[in-house]
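Consider the tokenized backbone below.
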């Protein structure tokens, strides 16, 4: 089973967006300004093909297996998040006609795994671990640093996986009023 990790392309939207939406749940409503699934999906596809927001294909990596999107990871630095989220806030504020504020999800100086998800068809084959290892390599290639992610406190299996991979719970975090664990792993260059 050959798993290829690669940068996303615009054409990956149809397979990647449903996985991202499944992973982030209700956050997808905040990120799109929509409340109905079809509208959320349509808006996410548009955001994915743009270059100015956190859900852009430019910040997305694909785990490809047999020509299919088996997993997705959205990844960027905390410094990039400031600009990406400001762009998204302006877009959503204009769309809704009211000021929209996006909760920060990462601390300054961190590299952030915004989303990591594996298609249910391919779970149990190490694809999630491979995506996380790829993120570690990206951080190493950039000189090392802190790799962070947020996980819902009720997702015990995911927390165990992240602990097993060397992530420690740093502090509680809140995103759209919901509690998360902010988990961090320090990546050093060998």
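A designed sequence for it:
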């Amino acid at each position: 089973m050959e798993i290829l990790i690669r940068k996303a392309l615009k054409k990956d939207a149809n397979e990647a967006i449903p996985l991202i939406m499944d992973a982030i749940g209700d956050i997808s409503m905040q990120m799109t300004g929509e409340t109905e699934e079809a509208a959320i999906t349509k808006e996410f596809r548009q955001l994915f093909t743009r270059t100015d927001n956190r859900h852009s294909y430019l910040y997305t990596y694909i785990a490809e297996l047999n020509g299919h999107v088996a997993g997705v990871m959205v990844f960027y630095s905390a410094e990039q998040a400031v600009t990406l989220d400001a762009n998204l806030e302006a877009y959503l504020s204009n769309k809704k006609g009211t000021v929209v504020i996006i909760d920060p999800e990462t601390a300054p100086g961190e590299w952030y795994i915004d989303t990591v998800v594996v298609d249910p068809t391919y779970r149990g084959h190490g694809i999630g671990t491979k995506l996380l290892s790829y993120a570690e390599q990206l951080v190493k290639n950039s000189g090392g640093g802190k790799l962070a992610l947020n996980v819902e406190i009720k997702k015990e299996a995911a927390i165990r996986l992240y602990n097993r991979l060397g992530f420690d719970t740093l502090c509680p975090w809140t995103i759209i009023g919901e509690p998360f664990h902010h988990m961090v792993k320090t990546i050093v260059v060998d």
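The longest strand covers residues 68-77.
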